[in-house]
Design brief:
Two copies of one chain form a homodimer.
Chain A lengths: L2 E4 L3 E7 L2 E8 L1 H9 L5 E7 L5 H8 L4 E7 L5 E6 L8 E6 L19 E4 L4 H10 L5 E4 L3 H6 L1 H9 L3 E5 H8 L4 H10 L4 E5 L5 E5 L19 E3 L13 H16 L4 H18 L13 H15 L3
Parallel strand pairs in A: 1-4, 1-8, 2-6, 4-5, 8-9, 9-10, 10-11
Antiparallel strand pairs in A: 2-3, 6-7, 11-12, 12-13
Helix pairs in contact in A: 1-8, 3-5, 6-7, 8-9, 9-10
InterPro entries (chains A, B): PfkB_dom (IPR011611), Ribokinase-like (IPR029056)
GO molecular function, one term (chains A, B): kinase activity
Keywords (chains A, B): Kinase, Transferase
């Protein structure tokens, strides 16, 4: 089952206590695509400039990612520069050059139309909605957003939320979106805004899934109790976080890639997807940029999945 | 198997967004004792003043806690006043009156000497060491500490650490003690200071256990791989945290109470103890002070244990 992802493809320059990387291929859609590519076929929609060369695109295509939806236009690609020197948990933005991303108009190739899974990475909710409308037949739509859209583009975002099977955001975003500092209450409020399920990412503490009665349409009434208990997947404690950039997008890629690979959506599949999300995030932060995500194999992924189980399971 | 706990017994006045409680019976040894009392016999060592009346002591004795080690002296009991109005995750101290606690000299009743488990709650490491030395035959000693002792009484604390089977502290204390902001590296450094195992509490995100080759003396060589993977127990997301005071001490009580009740120390027992710690912490914060801890039964505890399993387990 293939996934279409729309989002940013960018160059990042990042410094962390472990070192520095210059203009590596990054952006939410890149991290998502690479992480999901280990589970299913991924098709990307984005925009890049003249500085985005075949060698850059090859990072995606070598992993089998379909890049026919990557629009090459004149100008420079989206560029971000950040530092984690002060705090590994929060990037300090040193430069943001939107460049060609500023006038991004997603174009969906005809070949993408049979995809049944759609991921709306963190972009203008107006564009998220547009892509969503252009693919009315998808079975499942998940999405991300950020504080900028929550505070400044609320009405547009609310329209997107109504159409989501799952919203994936972090703690701070969830509390801001709900206007409530308590995570349980915030989750209940967000689920009332439309998403059938909510995944809140906690960085080094893992992620929590919150369900609603709309989460699993075919669920037997006798199993309805599973909806009332959130599900918490751990993150892997690492002795060196080399570069935290892209951990959340890699989580989303692992999560949604695994879901798409399974076909049917059950609580058990959703929970395993949460673990695969954590697994892919843990690989990403072990190296700079997408370096680690480019060279994995399924066996390493399964071994780490087993590690996540050992980390969190009583037996 | 009975536990001796030495630590503070106090009166707390606490305000939180949920309300306010005046001079309730509190202190680390109180929370610990009540939480552990659902698993095993508990014997407390502490000091109280003339304001500590039979009705206050009854909160402990009704739960079967042996209070013969509670020294009644002239003066007022330890009093603490705190506010969580600004931040539910961190108390703002409004008043600390050590009173009789200032000249606390632990006295161990002869009847306590056959206890095989000892918990050194957060007090001056000189007193922790003294109690530890007075009970040379205990099978297992766990302890807590805080920033004040870590920064100002380091040498004394280091002597205590050498004798601990497990140290239970929070994230910030672990990073301060190790002088390292990375939790995995901090844990490794702390285990080198002496504790056989380390439990780091993350508040609403649960707790993580770190092991060493000394954690489980009888462990088969073929099972040594379990020592290399930390174990993370979740905390229960709650829609209202009424009063976070005592959550960490209740965790310690549930954790050590369960360990003591099991007799043998295996990785499986340790991991279940981590869950019981989280369970008892989750009850404590549902009401003010020790209110909830006074009126539990083992059936409620087992039901919540099952909830913790559902919250974190794939199947």
């Amino acid at each position: 089952m293939s996934i279409v992802v729309v989002g940013s493809v960018a160059f990042d320059t990042v410094e962390t206590p472990s070192g520095r990387v210059e203009r590596c291929v990054a952006g939410a859609a890149t991290y998502f695509s690479l992480a999901a590519s280990y589970f299913t076929q991924v098709r990307v929609i984005g925009v890049v400039g003249e500085d985005f060369l075949p060698e850059h695109e090859a990072i995606l295509t070598r992993r089998g990612v379909d890049t026919r939806g990557l629009d090459h236009v004149s100008g420079k690609s989206f560029f971000w520069q950040g530092s984690y020197m002060k705090n590994l948990n929060e990037a300090q933005t040193l430069a943001t050059e939107l460049n060609v991303f500023q006038s991004f108009t997603p174009k969906i190739p005809a070949e993408y139309r049979d995809s049944e899974y759609l991921f709306l990475a963190n972009i203008d909710p107006v564009l998220q909605e547009e892509v969503r409308r252009s693919m009315p037949d998808v079975r499942m739509v998940c999405g991300d957003t950020m504080n900028y859209w929550i505070t400044g583009h609320r009405e547009n975002l609310e329209r997107v939320l109504k159409g989501l099977d799952a919203l994936l955001i972090n703690d701070g975003e969830a509390k801001l979106l709900a206007g409530d500092g308590n995570l349980m209450r915030a989750a209940a409020k967000i689920l009332e805004m439309g998403p059938k399920s909510l995944v809140v990412k906690h960085g080094e503490y893992g992620a929590t899934a919150f369900f609603s009665e709309r989460s699993f349409p075919g669920l037997a009434k006798s199993d309805a109790h599973v909806l009332t208990v959130p599900f918490r997947a751990p993150a892997l404690p690492l002795s060196e976080v080399v570069d935290p950039t892209g951990a959340g997008d890699s989580f989303a890629g692992g999560f949604f890639g695994y879901l798409a690979s399974q076909g049917e959506l059950t609580p058990a599949v959703f929970k395993r997807a949460m673990f695969y999300g954590g697994v892919m995030g843990s690989f990403t932060v072990e190296r700079f940029g997408t370096e680690r995500l480019q060279q994995l194999d399924r066996d390493e992924i399964e071994k780490r999945f087993a590690l996540f189980r050992q980390l969190s399971h009583l037996d």
